[in-house]
Amino acid sequence: MNLYYADGDQQMGPIGKAELQTLIKAKKVNAKTLVWQDGMESWQELGVFVRSQRQKRERPSQAAVSGAQAVCSECRRVFAEEEMIRFNDARVCAACKPVFVQKVKEGVSVAGALDYAGFWTRFGAVVIDGFIIWIFNMVLFVPLGIIMPTSTDDPFAALSFMPLIMLLQYAIPAVYDTWFVGKYGATPGKMACKIKVVVADGTPVSYSRALGRHFAKWLSSLIMGIGFLMAAFDDERRTLHDRICETRVVRK
């Protein structure tokens, strides 16, 4: 503690906690006695000093109640929320993250484990997204088809538009998927079904991973859709593109 106290006009100390308690019992110091220690701007009455020290000790628990800090679901210690990783309703400190993720992978029941979305919920989200993209394509390509040249004198005029049309057919779904998943963690279809895409530890997906996941879906489609059907039988409801990109689809 290294505390100094005033005895008349003299400065006494430094003393430790045990010595201070002895002096209090001997009535040589009381709540009005002036005390000081390194780091204090000025001398304080002992009573004021003790109260300030007690408030400092209690502040972490008060912060946890207010939401500034939280308890790690693994080690039960208090950390600042900004230094922790959130898994649904639970929070895990950085030191416990590897152990927690390993438990989830092994199927161990843990507080705050990811709640994986079921196959039919994911299927519903795909249907909604497909309908939205279909509407967008109709709005874009129908007027484009009307203004395309159809002259029989130049049959190659219409073909000149084909590269643009093919590019748009691939670019629109890619931009749709990447932007919504990268920014919100979910496409409109997934939002409607209250599910989202995360990485294996429950953290958000980056734009680059979202783009890679979109193109990985092509592989799931090329093998007769089996890559999508894998979600019905996988313990973590992963499709082939989820396995490739280390992502999971969970309930919000």
Describe this structure in words.
The protein is α+β, with helices and mostly antiparallel strands and 252 residues long. The chain folds into 3 domains: 3-62, Dna Ligase, domain 1 (2-Layer Sandwich), CATH 3.30.1490; 69-105, no CATH class; 119-251, no CATH class. It is built from 10 helices and 10 strands. The longest helix is centred in the middle third of the chain and has 29 residues, at 119-147. The model is unreliable at 61-66 (pLDDT under 50).
Supply the number of structural domains: 3
The main sheet comes to: 4 strands, antiparallel
Helix content: 40-55%
Mean pLDDT equals 81
Shape: elongated
Would you tell me the structural class of the helices and strands? alpha+beta
- Runs in which pLDDT lies below 50 for 5 or more consecutive residues are 61-66
SS element count, helices: 10
The radius of gyration over CA amounts to: 32 Å
User: How many strands?
Assistant: 10
Record the strand order, biggest sheet.
2-1-3-4
Strand content: 15-25%
Order of helix and strand elements from N to C terminus: EEHEEHEEEEHHHHHEHHHE
Distance between the termini: 49 Å
